Amino acid sequence: MLQITKIVLLLCLLITGLLITVATRAQSLTGNTGLATIPTARMQEDGTVSFGFSYFDKKHQQYFEGTKDFGAAYLNLTFLPFLEVVMRVNRPIPYHSTYTVDRFPMLKIRLLNEKKYLPAVAVGISDFASTSSWGTVHFNATYLVVAKKFADFDFHLGYAPIIMKALYYQLDGVFGGVAFAPNKSVRLFAEYDTRYVNAGIQYLFLKHFSINLTTLNFDSYAAGINFKVFLK
What are phi and psi of 27, to 5 degrees? Predict the structure, then answer.
């Protein structure tokens, strides 16, 4: 099964490489605009609705204590130029009816647009509402992040303090990353997510689609596909 999954991911990589045409803002695997697992101060264009699905290998995952792979489906709304709202649902793979589906919202607010000498600045919060007695559960994060572009490189640096009570935290401490865009359709990136160093590639094609292929800590993998609709 693992070998088949790797073959499918490779075929996706080759096919999308032939279909690349138009650039859009890159989507992370988590549902936020970002790199692989970290959010950035970038946002989708105002009036963008984004749907996506991501697959995470169980290794290094806190969800289900690393015993199961899981999928994440999300809806990303950028209906104001400074506000990004995400609703996300997680399910273990394979799914069983006795498992609880994990649902949570994410918010990101841009405080400052990037200027010539100043970075873009945003704050955000993830998994802040739950019916559990623990409050939030698996993917909590409260963070501040900045972004600055130099030529074809986009640099990101953020900090996520522990503010809310949770079983697990998506981000806990300093995080950051860099993306390199050799053209308007491809981005290579590397990131530090407060625990591991991840790297990957994002393909943006046919104006509305993007694919993210990532290696997590260089010994496991994740992948995602995203579809965008532009309302303006």
Answer: -110, 140
pLDDT one-digit tens code per residue, 63-111: 777 778 888 999 999 988 899 999 998 888 877 666 667 788 899 999 9
Say whether 12 sits in a helix, a strand or coil. helix
What per-residue string of b and e applies to 58-93 under the rule 16 or more CB within 10 Å gives b?
bebbebeeeebbbebebebbbeeeeebebebebbbe
Give the global pTM.
0.82
Give the three-state DSSP class for 34: strand
Q: Which tokens in the block code for residue 206?
A: 């046919």
- Where exactly are the structural domains of the chain? 2-230
pLDDT at 51: 94
CATH superfamily of 2-230: monomeric porin ompg (2.40.160.40)
Give the tens place of pLDDT for each residue, 3-40: 554 444 444 444 444 333 334 367 789 999 999 999 99
Q: Which of 85, 104, 109 is nearest to 32 (CA)?
A: 85
Q: What gap in Å lies between CA 193 and CA 207, rounded to an integer?
A: 29
49 Cβ contact list (under 8 Å, min separation 6): 75, 76, 77, 78, 228, 229, 231
Secondary structure of residue 213 in the 3-state scheme: strand
Q: Do residues 167 and 133 make contact, with C-beta atoms less than 8 angstroms apart?
A: no
